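Onboarding guide, step 5: your first structure request.
Type a short instruction followed by the sequence, for example:

Predict the 3D structure of this protein.
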Amino acid sequence: MEEELLKKFEQAIKISDEVLEFSKPLVKENVKAIDIAEKIENEIRRHGAKPAWPVNISMNEIAAHYAPEANDPLVFKTDDLVKVDFGVQIDGCTSDRAFTVCIGKTTHPLIEASMKAVDEAIKILKPGVKVFEISEVIENVVTEFGFNPIRNLSGHGIEQYN
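The system replies with structure tokens like these:
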């Protein structure tokens, strides 16, 4: 049973890789957030999976978890910092993916800080490392770039149907 679950998680990851590449070019100036969310959810279904939650498209000062609703007027413009967060699930086995772009630019200091923080966190990952140790590395990198981490927005585990 455990091997079967692992295969479903791996399949969800593979699909999420493809959906991630599909999604990135969608986020551009004068496009509605709801249109992007619907296209991503349809792409997930096209691959035979289901969205794990409504696609979240957060912009600028909204750090996370904004899901556009039907007729949502949110349209992107130059210099908007946009984070797209989606999940792919197969029988409750989920892959959680996100990316951030700055409309009209190839990068942004917050994107650079986030990428470096992930790179540095990966360097210390090994069995037995405590979450607070990883968090400390991330916080140190982010503050070096002049940003402050959001204290009540943290990571989570991924388990079947949870």
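Each response can be followed by summary notes, for example: The chain has a mean pLDDT of 93.
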